[in-house]
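Q: Protein A?
A:
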Amino acid sequence: MIKSGVIAAYSGGKLPGAIGIVRMSGEGAFDILDGMFRPTRGKKMSESRHGQMVYGELLASDGQPIDICLACIYRAPHSYTGEDMAEVFTHGSEAIVSAALRAAFSLGARPAEAGEFTKRGFMNGKMDLAEAEAVADLIYAQTEQGAKNAAALLKGHHSKPLAAMRERILELIAHFYAVCDYSDEDIEPFEYIQASATISKDADALEELYRGYLRSASINEGISVAVVGKPNVGKSSLFNRLAGFERAIVTDEAGTTRDVVGHRISLDGKLFSLMDTAGIREGTSLAENMGIDRSFEAAEDASLVVAVFDGSRQLDDEDRAIIELCKNKLSAAVINKSDLKGCDMAAVRESFGTVFEISAKNGEGIEALTGWMLENAPDEGEILITGQRQAALIKDAAEALRQAQESAMLGLTADAFLLDAERAARLIGQVLGFDVDIDITQGIFSRFCVGK
């Protein structure tokens, strides 16, 4: 355990309220609590049992009682921070909480920095860095699903498999070096084919984690769905149909939508964030061109893209630009105006794996489209990586493993295989908090509120 001074902070909800929580952690926390809390039974708090709630008087810095409340101690290493910890549960008065903190500071504690309790838990091995980041997710969760996801991450749902994966890769590397360095010893030969199979399986797992991250915004913000297309194909009509009311302006004039219009909807309890975008074409004004630029950005950033085409008109260069925009995106094509005489849409059908014929005007075919949206939303029980830092490292680690696998299959030099395998192990380790730059670590904990 890393020894450090005592920190103190308020850790409860908004004041005034029913209860206020003053938290302390560090070597000497029990001594400070003894100086500011007097149990009614006469026995010192430092002599009480771990986790036992004790009734008594809270003393101000002048030694006078200021509250009748409860206190509890948590002995190292069996605490949130891994250090000796103490908590006082006061009445939820700003005056009482302020007096309690002044008493703690007068006895030798210092104010805690944002996230410092969790940081100490990380430094003392109570959680890895990915689990520490899950604490912030839990604090800022906006939905029940988001809270459940964060709680699972905090319990190591992905950390434990990632740690095991890192160990497998390190074992492969160690085996390879052992064969090279101790060729005279009776060591099982290094099999590239077997190593390639192991690496391929781990790369698959990492890529699935990254795909989950791309869907993770839906947990609190709704899975983003960009509705794109050239002007007057029915984007805004479709958007309004999905939204359930006239959210976007619909006219016969091309270029009516000049900016991205957003609206959230719930389908079978799952949240979607719809974006109606400006029609993509050669703009006729500065404002329209700015809207078109934002359309490209929305399509690039969205989890799902719905590309709308006018089924009553032949495809043109603007339609083909939409098709090109949707490449490498999780997208579906909507051939609108199915109630009118249809034109040849072969290029659309060839370019999209999923195509719907609808009439945004009368609602025909909308249910099939919303069904596709639901199919591509995260399952309620799916636990997703939510941190951008973790996702970037996981993506790079997967690419490194693919390169190592390719080197092994092609029979390239050992250096090529080892370089990529070692890089993957290092990146996975950084997800968990090994060899992470101190500035990155500090940035992570600065997201936390004071007292957590």
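Q: Protein B?
A:
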Amino acid sequence: MATNSRGQFNSRLGFVLAAAGSAVGLGNIWKFPFEVGAGGGAAFVLIYLAFCFLLCFPVMISEIAIGRKTQLNAVGAFKKLGHHNWAWIGLLGILAGVFILSFYNVVAGWAFGYFLQMVQGNFEIGQNFGSYISKWESIGLYGLVFMGVTSVIVSKGIQGGIERAAKILMPSLFVLIIGLMLYAFTLDGAMDGIEYYLVPDFSEITGEVIYSALGQAFFSLSLGMGALITYGSYVSRKQDIVRSAAMITLTDVSVAFLAGMMIFPFVFSSGIEPNGGAGLIFATLPGVFEGLGPILGIVIGATFFLLLSFAALTSTVSLLEVPVAYLVDEKKIKRPVAVWGMATLIFLLGLPSLLGNGAVEQLTSFMTLYRDGQEQMISFMDFVELIASDTFLPLGGTVIAIFTAYVWKKNNLNAELMEGRETDSKWMMSYINFAVMFFCPIILGAITIITILERFFGIQVF
């Protein structure tokens, strides 16, 4: 199928911002800080950065190259390059994206709802976080609005929808995060937070910290779910894939890094434990904002959760585009029908996750699995995240690397990367080939196996 019949990014900037937007999301601003806190601070940050560039970067390049070579969706791309026997890789990515979006939209609803609460000056919402997320009617309404906005953007196509939204949302996100960070630096105790975040204590490094840092890096860059294969299929052959992938990785890492620079001064200035877990953002920060005074607290609090909503939206757009591209390419369904039909299906798939936060006991205490060798009752939403995000994504990355190196072959990858290449860096190409052939499949395969052993069978590897 010709590129122009499917749409194409108008510029490198548009592609980089859209792909970076796919990567930048709640994982960077909501999840990254509490992972840093649980991982002991700066040591976790260093390991995370190393994995982003040494491990995730080559997988990203492979995904974009596969997409651009075939000009097809995730399933069609593998069918074209490796025959029908390999289409399951793309299908695995699409399923992962669909299920991730089903619960991700719920968390996006939390963020949007918090923005509305901050505007009203309701700082007590943090103290009632558990009660707040159990109110499925209001959270469901916020999620419905979020899915609706996502669908409008995706339905307008590549240039008119996804690229245009990225050019607005991504710069806005950077302005908001830098503004909040600079304000946070003025707070008492802020430098203690910066020291915790930037000065590593290498005694904190354990096997579990390394494992968590790798998982965070892979999740935050949106790898293994077909998003970058799909976006790559809209890229001009004149673009330098390696350079674009470097810019995407740098943008994503910068947002995560700046998020930590913003949040830890707030946390330390208020005497909050930095290892507060997932509730660090939703349960504790509203109280921090309240301490800034009624007017300033509303402004800063509303701005922060607007930032969180923007970050979520850049990701929900890419997550929806993946199955939509499949339906448009493979099933010849018109884009508007594919968008609204898939959005409706995903919203319905997300209802158990919505109800599994206190509204329905059977979904809140859904099943018993393991964490740190101990039995743990998890919600339906946690179960979907474990399957789709923690298991399918590294598995997808593993098989994409294997496919690229041993089915499509490195010579074909190199030929694709040389099209539009602005510099001929032999050491970079050599590293990409080494990583895709050996480093990425071994490490990502190990992570997949460790996740299954630890979470499903309670076998402690670390």
